[in-house]
Each structure stands twice: as C-alpha cells, then as structure tokens.
Amino acid sequence: MTSAVRRALVGAGALATAAGVLAGCTSAGQPMVVTTAARTTIDGPLHVRVTGAPAGEDVVVSVESTDATGTAWRSSATYEANTSGVVDVDTTASVKGTYTGVSGTGLVWSMRPVGTADAAYIWRRTGPSSFRVTVRAGDATASARFERGLTATTLEHREASLESDGFVGELWSLPAGTQKHPAVLVIGGSEGGMNSFLAASFAAHGYPSLAVAYFKAPGLPQTLSAIPLEYFEHALDWLAAQPGVDPSRIVVAGGSRGSEAAELLAVHDRERVHGLIGASPSDVVGCSIPDCDGPAWTLGGKAVPYTRTWNDPRATDNPRAVIPLAKAGGPVLLVCGEADTLWDSCAYSRAAMAALDADPQAPPHELAAEPGAGHFVDQLVPGEPEVSPTEYTAAQHAMEQAVMPDVWRRVLAFLAALGGSAPG
C-alpha cells in the first residue's frame, strides 16, 4: 500500500560538491563549513559533512525543501561534534530530531510537511528538487544547497488514457536505443492510483516501466470491486509494443492488494508475464473493498475465487482463493516486513514460498523478509520523505528506511538477472 499520489523527478544532472561557509566564527575562532554533494540521486547517498564546529558541542543540522505542490518540508537533527570539530552525517548518530541514530540520508527521508499532518513529498516531473541545509553550533551558522533527482539523464514520460489506449497509465523510460530491455508493469495497492514514483525509479535503472491506475481514477471504478484482469492484460500488450521493451522479459510488480493482481497475472498470463515482484503481498485473493461483499477481481467475466478471512494464508473459508504461484511463468521475488500491522504479509509470503519449495516445477523464487519493517516496505525505493496514516509511526518509517537500501539492491539484482538492463 503506497501513498495515493507519487510523482517522479527527472533530469538530475551530474554529481558535484557544494559547500557553504559560516555566518559567524565558532568559539574556537574556526570557520564552520558544511559540504554536501551538489546533486545526488533519490536512491543514492547524500554525504553531508560539517567541519570547524566546536569540539564535543551540539550541532543542529536542518534541511528544507518545497515539493512540486508548493508544500514546504523540513527536517532537523542534533549531533555531537567529534574532537576534531567534525560531524559526518554518514557516520555520526543523531541524538534527537526528526530521526535518531545513524542514517546518511536521514535528513531527507525524515522531512515532515510544514503546517499539515498528512502528506507525501511530491517530486517534480521535470528538473531536480532543491534542498537547503543549514547548520547551527552556538552562534555560528553555515549553509549550503543541494539537488536531489532520480537520474543523471532525462527520463521520457508518456501518459496513456482510457479513451485512446484502453487503460489509465504512465510510461517512464530512458531514451530508447537499439537494445531492448526487460520492462515492468507497476500495480499499486488499495489506493488504486498510479505508483509513478516506483515506475520512474525502475526506468532510471534502465527498465521501461508502466504504472497503471485501476480504480479511483476518472472513468474507472471507484472501489476495488470486480476489476477485470483483462484490463491489465491490455496494458501488458501495450507495454510489450513500446520501443526499447523486450516482450519476452516483462515483469509485473504489485504492492499490497495490487500484489494479488500481479500474482494472478503471473499465473494466468505466462505468455505475457515473465517475472513477479510482490511487495507486502498476500498469497490469497481477498474480497472487494470497502464492503467485502463480492470479488475484487474477475477473469473471463467470472469472479476470481476469493476469501473473506483476514491474515489466513490458507483461506480456510475458500481454499480456491490461494494463488498457485508455483504455476508462475518466471522467477518470483517477494518482499515483506516482519512488523507489518496492516496485514501479516510475511506469513502470506512464507506460505507462498513453502508452496513454491514443494513443487519441483516451480520457477526460481526468493523472499526478502525484513525485521523491523512494516507494510510500507512495499515502496521498495529508499530515501522518500513520507508522512503516512495515523496507524503508522515515525519510528516505523525509520526502521523501514534502515532496510530499504538493501531491499532496493535485491529488487534491482532480481531485474538484472533477467539481463539486458541499461546502466542505472
């Protein structure tokens, strides 16, 4: 389950170094300087370093940015300068602030919106997002600016509409060359809208990606109820025909309730789907939402068997609702958080792995079960600022961000194993 709206930032440009100097000298008479890479990628390191601070004293570092909607965001963390007057955010623990502990990108992912309690940072569609970092130690201050973007090159972006294309979606890709690459169909969760951020992130690493909306969008159903799987099949055919896409290496990535559609496609559309990424997944087909009074999905005009039970990998009220992933037409990667409180995605994932292990004809499969992570590990991409629903805490977000770089590496390695990717 991801935020209802995400937008990708493109055209970040090459990396450089930015430095800011003090507004006043420290008590030791030294100039205080903050340095950071002038441009970084969203899923890469940040490298903020302060020098010339008073040794052993508190140093407060804050970061401010305005997203594409004009919403102001801010983070702040307090560190203790070492005996040389240095704070290196990559290795120095924050003792208090919007995050604590050691995290090189904590000053970005822990940003909070100013003046609102619930929001997602909306990245700019074109051009980099700008960030200002300010350092205070006693009466001395220093500042610098940096930009954070998706990729050093510009992504191409194309919208698909229900009227002209038969589905609602956004295609993200690097400029097409002569080589064809694995591609990804991205299916979001119970928000129903497009996870453009994830699709653009895949594209930045060389995988053309199509994010689709399947409800809660103009012209589409307003609830997750009786959604035809043929809708996604049409999108898969459209994606397969795009320049730079190898139709024999298309992966479906689904998060939360969207994992059900992704798994069903992997099982029923082996000629179209050649790999599966399930994030915070289920291994069973659930009922419609919000009322649980019918099927969530249909195939050939008939309801896909579903369960009304919750956190039941066996679907004891209707065992036919268990998705037979051993019949998937390509490798399977499942990602879950052991601290998932929205549903027990790791129990679902382990049940799916057990069924795959038991079938000698099953495709290659792996599970990334992350201790401490919750449901929103399904974002897959690290470093995104997030203020989530009330049942989700800042501490949970911090736990997820600690494991997200490893999750993202495993996802990219899974795709790279299909071969033919462009450099990210």
UniProtKB/TrEMBL annotation:
Q: Would the keyword Cell cycle turn up in this protein's UniProt record?
A: no
- The answer to whether UniProt assigns keyword Signal to this entry is yes
Domain (Acyl-CoA thioester hydrolase/bile acid-CoA amino acid N-acetyltransferase) spans 43-151
Signal peptide limits: 1-23
Segments forming a coiled coil: none
The UniProt record lists the BAAT/Acyl-CoA thioester hydrolase C-terminal domain at 227-269, 304-378
Query: What keywords are assigned to this protein?
Result: Signal
Query: Which protein family is named in the record?
Result: Belongs to the C/M/P thioester hydrolase family.
Q: What is this protein called?
A: Acyl-CoA thioesterase/bile acid-CoA:amino acid N-acyltransferase family protein
